[in-house]
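Appendix B. Chain record.
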Amino acid sequence: MKNADTNPAERIPSTSTRRDLSTVIAATHKIPQTLAYKIIDTTFEALLANLIKNGHVELRGFGVFEVVSRKGRRGRNPKKPEQEVWIAERRSIRFKPSRLLRKDLEDATLAPRHRR
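Structure tokens predicted for this chain:
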């Protein structure tokens, strides 16, 4: 069992869900978890609306999310490599981390990620 004095941010699992984030926020700021969840939802909705309207969102000290267009191209079916398929043009999101985030990640000791 974890120590109750542990920093809430240290309890984030390797794959974070909105619920995991709301648990950490609620514990850190001593607010109800339902309120923390609503804050996270509202934040994500505002980020999405801004991406749709402006094409990019800049979070200083974290990074920039930007909508980019990907050209159509030929690809291969992984199950049948001899079969070519057409991948249509589409929009995607690119993330460029800030210098501060890159520096923090370089200095951090990251735990190995365990996939399910």
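Further analysis of this model is presented in Appendix C.
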